[in-house]
Amino acid sequence: MGTLLKKEKSGAFRRVVMTYAPHETMPLHRDERSRISVVLAGSVRESTHRHDVYAETTSVVIKPGDLPHHNTFGPQGAIIASFVWPETMDLDEARRLHDTWAWHQQGAITQAALRLMTAASWQIPGMADNLFLDFFGCLGKEDATAHSQPAPPSWLGRAIEMLNDTLDQPYSVRALAKEAGVHPVHFSRTFRRCMGQTVAEYVRHRRVQAIASDLLHTSRQASLLALDAGFADGAHATRSFKKELGMTPSQYRCFFSASG
Known about the structure:
The protein has helices at about 90-95, 110-120, 125-145, 155-165, 175-180, 185-195, 200-215, 220-230, 235-245, 250-255; strands at about 5-10, 15-20, 25-30, 35-45, 50-55, 60-65, 70-85, 100-105. The protein is globular, with a radius of gyration of 19 Å. It folds into two domains: about 5-145, Jelly Rolls (Sandwich); about 155-255, Arc Repressor Mutant, subunit A. It is of the alpha+beta class and about 260 residues long. Strands 1, 2, 3, 4, 5, 6, 7 and 8 form an eight-stranded antiparallel β-sheet that branches.
């Protein structure tokens, strides 16, 4: 299922980029080998016997090869890059950090995953292993942060829905707080405590997600995609994109596009 865009090998490690059609489905299956995957564009719903996750652009998963799961891809389909490691690798330390399937939606883990997928130096002997271990180092830090975040109150969930529906427009924390029926300072503090970031950081992340997906689904100039996503100009978008993903929009498109 899906179409192979790129495939590279360094020793026992592999890097693979696949594209999936809109609304394509993959019935219950197991992957050939364990892998780290990042959604470069589009979205996917992945389900196991106990969990169901909707993952959007820049989401990352670490997935054991023996895990039964099925996938349904979103209305734009998806482009997914994977870093696959050998079954014989000693993963005791990795399993202590993260011994179950889970998706991560943002943060340092995304940059570490993209370094795995793009680093030209990975062909140097031992470098792929270094990048692999760097990823798990970021994973341990992010898990500790995620476990400390409380569940958001219902009013915050409604406010986030409103924010997501108007990401391409200017936002006002005061207006969001008024709609939620809470004081703006309480809104801001609760948002950061529950989401692990400020409202501004959340909006920037979501706008970068939109640009990243459109870069691989369209041929429009990155500066125009930036305006569509809600950024004031292309320069601001480029700085935010690089801060979020560790590369510029042009580098992202060049490396991951079908013609790249």
